[in-house]
Amino acid sequence: MTKPPGFWTRLKENMRHLKEGAPGSRFLDCFHYKRKLRDRYGSVFQIVDTCLGLGLVVGGLIMVPLPGPGWIIVGLGFALLAGESERVARFMDRQERVLRIVGSKTRRGWTNASLMVKSLIAITSGALVGSAGYGAFLILQNHFAN
Question: What is the pLDDT of residues 32-52, one digit of tens each?
Fold first, then answer.
């Protein structure tokens, strides 16, 4: 049996498969690639990838109410789990299609919006982010004061 690829080699290959995959099927393609690796080298990394993916999902969900990249970390955790579960891979491919549609409509709406509407959206977004940050500050201040 040959030696399995190292962590960084596997990470680069996974990223290459995700980048080169067709939108709407890239996570399932990555799952099949990782299945071939498991067939060839055994399930050496399956437990590590599953635990790391679950840890990222749980940690990201904890971070969602706080200012920061909570949802991005949840997405990375699900992307890692998609390599180990066909059901999660199919879910991620469906979500990618939906997000692409929403993103294109949002981009089109922003491009067609007037300067007044863009200004109002920017001011409202800034106020919401500032309010959320101030609320988190007050909660943390009260938590550590007690």
Answer: 888 887 877 777 677 878 888
Query: What does the chain come to in residues?
Result: 146
> What does the DSSP 8-state code read for residue 64?
T
Please tell me the distance from the alpha carbon of residue 19 to that of residue 83, in angstroms, as a whole number: 14
Q: Is 39:109 a contact under the CB 8 Å cutoff?
A: no
Residue 35 · residue 44 · CB < 8 Å:
no
Q: Percent of the chain scored above 90 by pLDDT? A: 36
Distance CA 89, CA 71 (A): 18
Location of structure tokens 């399930």: 43
The pTM assigned to this predicted structure is: 0.67
For residue 146, count other CB atoms closer than 10 A to its CB. 5
